[in-house]
Structure formats: C-alpha cells, structure tokens
Design a protein that fits this description.
With 307 residues, the protein is of the alpha+beta class. Among the domains are: 10-58; 130-293, 3-layer Sandwich (Rieske Iron-sulfur Protein). 28% of the residues lie in helices and 26% in strands. It has a 5-stranded antiparallel β-sheet, with no helix packed on it. Strand 3 and strand 4 (173-180) form a beta hairpin. Helix 1 (12-29) runs antiparallel to helix 2 (34-53). The structure holds FE2/S2 (inorganic) cluster (FES). FE2/S2 (inorganic) cluster binds next to loops. FE2/S2 (inorganic) cluster is lined by residues 183, 185-186, 188, 226, 228-231, 242-244.
C-alpha cells in the first residue's frame, strides 16, 4: 500500500506545554518552588521534543520507497535496503529552519516585553516596615486616623491610611488594633464614622520618621463606612452592612525602642470580642471582594501577590 509518511503523534509537546503552564502558575502561587519545577519539566520535555524533531536530520530515519513495497519485498528488508532518496529533503529542512527562526524571533521579541511587563508585579514584594513614631503619641483607648508612607522611594504613591487604637497592655505585651482602610468590597478608602480633630477640641499630630511624615488625626468612630457602595463596619472592622464579603484587613505590628512599627497586612473574616481581648480570625492577605472562608473560597484558588 502506498501511504504517505506521517510522523507518529508524540507526547513531548504536551509535556512541554504543561511545564510552561506550571511556570506561569508558579509565578502566582510560589515563584521559588513551583516555577523552577515547571521550568525543569519544560526543559526536559523540550529537549526530548527537539531530539525527536531532529532525529531525521541526525540520520536515524530511513525512507522506504513505495515502489520497493509494491514489489512485495518485506518491509523489514525494504527498510534495510539502501535508498537513493535523500534522508532529509530540502523542503523539510527549509520548513524546520523557517519554524525555528520564527520561534527564535518570536522569543526574542516577546520574552523581554513580557518580562518587563509582568515580573515587577511578582518581584520586589518585600513588605516594608513602617515607623509610625513613639507609642506615646497613641494614648490608650483613643483612635487615630493615621496616614503614612510605606516606601519613601515610591513617595506619595505608597501613602496609606490605617485606623489605630492603643488597647493598653495584654499581660506585658502592648496591644494595638490597627485596621486598614481598604474596603473589603472593591477596595475604596473606608472613612471613620465620627467626629475628628477640631470638633473634638484635639490637635492633629505630625511625626517625622524614617518613612517620612506620619499624620495622626484623633477620631471617635461609631464604626467605619465606605462611600462607594455603602459598606459598613463596626469598630473591630466586622462587616455590618452592604456588599463587603468579609471584615477589614489588619496590620501586624511590633514595638521597637518605644516606637510603633507596622509590619505586613493580613485579611480577616471577622473578629470576636473587642480591643486587647479580640479573637481575630485571620488569613493570608487577599484581594478586595475575595471570600477567604466557606465554600465560596474555592472560587479564589490562586491569590496574586499583594502589597
Ligand atoms: S468598595 Fe466599599 S462598599 Fe464597594
């Protein structure tokens, strides 16, 4: 029978694609472990794929002439018979060169652009510690709308606001409630529901720290409210009304040399109790609108990096 020469299907391209997919997923989930595993898979399968694709070029394949088969010569004998046909025709060679050059040019153009566009979002995610000044600026039991700069190199772009209350000591350990003003619905800036500064007869305080100016505005909040879609929270950041899917995020903190230092942020479903006695149901930082508990959390399996 005169059948065209069709290459056997191979799994190597599939393995290569899986490796690339693992690399991309790893950039989101865990760039230090998952991405290198994906790269290793891609390299191994890419090598096997390239090896197979170039096997004819390396002279491993033998062309069987249709006429030989028609004469009734057994296929094995025909395969062993010398053939005058070129083992790697010029058309196949040009096809391979064209595809190869296209791939190289595509890679040279695409990889740097994609790298510059995507990598900064995944690298340099180091959380900056923020010096908010001496803890004596935060009298026990009082709330302050505190505005500060996270990274002096980025300037006002990294300006953030947190609602801070000194809860006094829990044993010998200082206790602060430090709530982010990023709404848990879509991220609008949440406002304190209550009088501030001059109405209270109290002055704002400005501290100049290593992070730049820190502004403390006294406030007596009945809760916190979001101007965008009416989300409401109590003074522990628990959602009480509106569309937010969870409570407000919080900041971890430390007290070093008598100064209040902000650390990383984390997400909170809800808080039981208040102040120093509060039991905080905390989770890894998630984006606004993302459920972090219950069955809905399976809709958000991958958490992109957040500042
Ligand atoms: S962003 Fe706050 S309620 Fe929608």
């Amino acid at each position: 029978m005169d059948e065209p020469h069709i290459p056997l299907p191979t799994l190597w391209p599939l393995g290569f694609a899986v490796g690339i997919a693992v690399v991309l997923v790893g950039l989101i989930v865990d760039p230090t472990i998952v991405s290198p595993v994906g790269a290793a898979i891609a390299v191994v399968f890419g090598f096997l794929w390239a090896r197979e694709a170039t096997s004819e070029l390396r002279g491993h394949a033998v062309v069987v002439e249709p006429e030989t088969r028609e004469l009734g010569v057994p296929e094995q004998a025909a395969a062993e018979a010398p053939s005058e046909a070129p083992s790697f025709p010029r058309s196949r060679f040009l096809e391979a060169v064209t595809l190869g050059l296209g791939g190289v040019i595509g890679g040279v153009v695409t990889v740097p652009v994609a790298g510059f566009a995507l990598l900064p979002g995944f690298l340099g995610q180091k959380r900056h510690e923020v010096d908010l000044g001496p803890v004596t600026d935060f009298p026990e039991g009082k709330w302050f709308i505190t505005t500060f700069i996270v990274d002096p190199k980025e300037g006002d772009v990294s300006r953030r606001t947190a609602f801070i209350r000194n809860n006094g000591l829990l044993g010998n350990v200082p206790s602060f409630t430090i709530i982010s003003n990023r709404c848990a619905h879509l991220g609008c800036p949440v406002q304190a529901n209550g009088p501030t500064g001059a109405i209270l007869g109290e002055k704002n305080v400005v501290e100049h720290t290593a992070n730049g100016p820190v502004l403390l505005r006294p406030v007596v909040p009945a809760g916190f409210g979001c101007p965008c879609h009416g989300g409401q929270y109590d003074t522990e950041g628990n959602r009480t009304a509106g569309p937010p899917v969870r409570g407000l995020d919080r900041y971890a903190f430390d007290v070093k040399n008598g100064r209040l230092i902000l650390l990383s942020t984390y997400s909170v479903t809800h808080v039981d109790g208040t102040g120093a006695q509060a039991k905080i149901h905390k989770y890894k930082l998630a984006g606004p609108g993302e459920h972090i508990d219950g069955v809905e959390q399976i809709l958000y399996p991958l958490q992109p990096p957040h500042h």
